[in-house]
Fold:
Amino acid sequence: MNACAAPLSFERLMAYWQGELDPAEEAAIEDHSFGCATCTDRLDWLSRLGAGITALVTAGKISASVTGDLLARLQEQGARIRTYRLTEGQTVACTAGPTDHFVAVRIELDVAHDETVDVSSLIEIAGVRERQTNHSEDVLVDRALKEAVFLFSGDRIRAVPRSTWTMHANVRGPRGDRRLGPFVLDHTPWEDLPPAARTPA
Amino acid sequence: MLSIGGARGVDWFAVVDTVPLRELDDGELASRIANQPAAPAEEGELCRRFAPRVRLYGLRHLGNEATADDLVQRVLVLTILKLRAGEIREPGRIASFVLGAARTTCLEMRRVGAREIHHDPETLEVALPAVEPLPLARLGGCLDGLGERERTVIVLSFYEDQDAPTIARTLAIKEGHVRVIRHRSLERLRACLEGPAPHLEEALA
Structure:
């Protein structure tokens, strides 16, 4: 059998899969893919990708900048999410319990619709001289709730040693740039906490 | 009960690997089924090719795996029976026939409810190929390799099932920008998943 001369792009197939196309465009894609093994394979890959991502999120294996709605939905589905809220200049003690699916960090940010936010983190690990940095560009900010929500997989945070995470939000916009923070997380591994401090999520 | 191809309990998906049927196009396969008194290997190959196409159509239009699999059974059984009976005027355009059958059957399933349509599993049953999931640990690593905004778009697209206009409103960006991010992210994920496994990359470094 011949390979497809002009395979449908993943974006086009994604638009079809999400129902974003009009009926004629949708029918054209179906007419093509029913006669094309290559494009069927590409669409099948998207379907399996979706199943895989859903499985990873459900199992608490994904870290991402998310919406408060997604967080609420995960909680409705029974996910155990340990949540920390930070305001500018605040230091919050944090950990990840042995059965936590996720750790969510909600940072209070008041930014305009035409501003974008990068978040930079300085990570100081106890007993390690060199500090690490982390940079997240163009994070999702809920402007109505005035917050950015970061979702971390429980596995990932449980692997983090005793450390301090100092975050700043670098806000960029047409009226100039500004820096908000620090927002500080003081992390202690669960097993190093005194029993009284080991609270459920 | 007869399995597709006429022999009971035979895995045609294994049998067809030993014949060059995969070199034939869909129309040629269908023509053989229509013109030969018995073409079990060709029937198996036709089902192997069209099962995923119909399944994907079912997932898109019916929304769940069970009813999509049901759609596959109904459409492929109909197709094979029609070919055997010489009732498909143009076997060379078998893809159009299968798509038409999928559309009609899907509409009927939605109209009356999938369980209400009569389907006698005692006459024919198609062995459906297994859907192989993507390697989750590998996928997780590939997702970690995306930028923050890319990963957000992917999670909102697939886990929250949000379309581009909805994501655009959520992120306060233009719809076109969402599509660009989505396109780039999907290409990167595909390349990452199809690339060499991480331990091999380290060994080769």
User: Anything to note?
Assistant: The radius of gyration of chain B is 21 Å.
